[in-house]
Amino acid sequence: MSLSNKASVIIVTYNHRKYMRDCLNSVLANNPLEVIVVDNGSTDGTVELIEREFPQVKLIKSPKNLGYGGGNNLGVMYAKGEYVVILNPDTRVEKNWLEELLKPLENEEKLITTPKILTYDGLKINTCGNIEHFTGLTFTRGLNETPEKFSKFEYLSGLSGACFAMKREDYLKLGGFDERFFSYMEDAEFSWRAHAKGFKILYVPNSVVYHDYILKVPSEKIYHLEKGRYIILRKYLTWKELLIMLPSLLMTEVLTWGYSILNGVRGVKFKIKGLKEGITTKIEKVACDRKKLLKSLDWKIPEDQLTYTPSDKIIKKIANFVYWINYRVILR
User: Fold this and answer.
1) CB 232, CB 192: distance < 8 Å
2) What is the value of pTM for the model shown?
3) What phi, psi does 236 have (nearest 5°)?
4) Which keywords, in A-to-Z order, does the entry hold (predicted)?
5) Cα pseudo-dihedral 87, 59, 186, 197, rounded to 10
6) Distance separating alpha carbons of residues 288 and 265, to the nearest angstrom
7) More confident position, 307 or 3
8) Could you say which architecture CATH assigns to the domain 3-211?
9) Once rounded to an integer, what is the mean pLDDT over residues 222-244?
10) For the CA atoms of 278, 279, 283, 288, what is the dihedral angle to 10 degrees?
11) pLDDT above 80: residue 1
12) What CA dihedral angle connects 73, 65, 213 and 91, to 10 degrees?
């Protein structure tokens, strides 16, 4: 039996009808054990399309919108496969995508794999796994590079929530996605938790996904990103680590406040809202080797993402210098 026949592919959707036909056809061509679609209350005909054209798909109709993390947790509960594969609905996949993504999981324990994700037209890279920064920032890795780049297997700081695979048993042991993250940052928190629990994240370049993605951070997204960032820092680090990291945390505040101000009154409003909720949301501290956790994260941020002027790039170069010095002190 091929590895694909041992996999449950989970797709959470909310009004993604225009993508579902191509997405499901490409996934089914990979011969998984099952495809589970969790619908979060779509009103655009997504459910009707799946019921009419894809009777072989297991469709779960959630009575309420559970968000991306909650929807995936529900899907995994119903999964029968030895492996679970999380996949965005606004994607299509190559023929050998699933088998290649699963191969490394067969012989290595405590492993998560994430593929090469290209833009929907295949002309550029969307992400080759994510960059999880030790101050809680998160970035796509390889954004807008040519598809030929990032051709080697690598262990990374972060998985991409758009697609990753792992053993179902491991997903359940880790506790699945934290459902307090309704949208955005759920994959960042999951990456931090994976490292905290001794897992590795492996980038698999010969497993390819096409994703309809454009990098945008509107004011509302600032709220979700910042709320999530503060929750992650509080959840995984103690006051001791946060104090040692203070120069880097202040530098990140300069960057996030600066970007919020560029978004005007709404940007500032949502930054404040994210800050307030991020530091007041109830959390449960995760016990782990915190120095080892920080060592598994990245210290450098991309200097070309969300950069619009030469001064933006200079500020990010200064930030990376501060991060580099501080990170060395942290890991001493």
Assistant:
1) yes
2) 0.95
3) -110, -15
4) Glycosyltransferase, Transferase
5) -80
6) 39
7) 3
8) Alpha-Beta Complex (3.90)
9) 96
10) 100
11) no
12) 60
